[in-house]
Amino acid sequence: MRTLARVLCALVLALTFVCPAAAHAYDVGGAIGDAWRAGARSAMGDPTGPEVCGLRDRGCYQNFQRGAMYWQQAAGAHWVRGAIQERWGTMRWENSPLRYPTTDERCGFRDGGCFNHFQGGSIYWSPASGAHPVWGLIRDRWESMGWERSPLAYPVEGERCIIRNSGCFQYFQGGAIYYSPATGAHPVFGAIFDHWRDSGWEAGRYGYPTGGEACRTEGGGRICDQRFEHGTITWRSDRGIVTGVDCRVARCVALTYDDGPSSHTSRLLDTLGREGVKATFFVVGDMVDSRGPTVSRAASMGMEIGNHTTHHGTLSSMSYQGVRNELNPTSDKIQRLTGRRPVWMRPPGGATSTTVQQASADMGMGVALWSVDPYDWRDRNAATVTDRVLHDVRPGAVVLMHDLHGTTVDAAPGIIRGLKAQGYTLVTMSELLGQPAPGQVYRSR
Ligand code: ZN
Question: Residue 420's closest CA among 428, 409, 412, 408?
Fold first, then answer.
């Protein structure tokens, strides 16, 4: 029968020069033919070639004027066309992880969007976003949010993988979905997305999202929380983003830099900003006078500023009033430059005493000592300092360094990356330890 039909069709093909409205040039048979005659014809037009079989999993396809129809036993017969067909083609059609279409193209969704579902995922298209595949756990999560009706809207690219801890992610018009085997797939969008991005994505201080956004109304305002591996990002309608790394959960470490600000401090701030991490600066009042803008900049970047006295004198040999005289002018300067009075002081040389603690208590400051000392002031070698910090660090450590030395600033990128690779989150003193009890001595968490 098929041979006879082909002969007839060849005859018809010859006749179409004379009579273009004659029957189609090609057979449309089998399941593709059934689907075509049942309604796909209006979308697809007439065949422009023969049915081709022997594809993956014994599938077949046939090209039509406005697209193609694919058939495979498990998937059924369905058509693809336009941008979705093209995108599927760039992935090598049924040889891609999507395999065969399981629906025809369906249109009329948000912002004029269309999609095809496939055995291994979907391709979504809209005029503004283009056509992009979505599959696996990211697709499941997007589906649970209501597909393109969610705040994410449409995908704007395919999935990308091989980031920290074997993660994958996909961008959408309104945000992203991030996945890792340990944390699962979760969406991030809106103001929380912006803050998380600026903090260095999944490699930054918060790590991967461990849940979706949870919102509630409180006191007439709206509050949304989202948990990440190392803390929670909160958005409030009255205050915007409020955040905190939770050092009870995260492996935290506080890098502290004493004796500045110096001519090297700006470069250190550049590094900290680039890496999306925080540190604490114990500044000397005499040094602040010529470099006030550096202190203001550090504070505006979220660094914490502590008091390291005015003249770097030995506080343990001073009277109560002498200690206050060393600390007070510097707290005043810090407050003028940053708008905040320091809650931490560090005695030069770590030389504390009950008198120093009493004066600090009366001035509302905790006494900040340290648990890791790489002797950067003595050994002016970036590699040595880096090795010592990375070897001696423990969760909850306070690391003592000095931004007075160029070699210490040279060591910062290696220390930061090394700590991140060990799973540490770099925080300020107050993030590590909370608001200090005035006069109490702290060495680590
Ligand atoms: Zn010092």
Answer: 412
Tokens of 85: 């067909």
Give the predicted TM-score (pTM) of the model. 0.68
**Residues designated catalytic:** 258, 402
At residue 136, the 3 state secondary structure works out as: helix
Do the beta carbons of residue 189 and residue 196 sit within 8 Å? Answer: no
397 touches 444 (CB < 8 A): yes
Q: What is the DSSP letter of 74?
A: T
Q: What is the pLDDT of residues 392-421, one digit of tens each?
A: 999 999 999 999 999 999 999 999 999 988
Q: Which two tokens stand for residue 61?
A: 């396809």
Ligand 1 center to 199 CA (angstroms):
30
Q: How far is the CA of 1 from the centre of ligand 1 (A)?
A: 96
H or E stretch including 168? strand 167-172
Query: Tokens for 69?
Result: 């129809």
Residue at 71: amino acid letter: W
Q: Rounded to whole angstroms, what are the CA distances from 39 to 26, 84, 114, 150?
A: 18, 20, 18, 32
Q: How far is the CA of 395 from the centre of ligand 1 (A)?
A: 24
Evaluate whether 365 touches 436 at the Cβ level (below 8 Å): yes
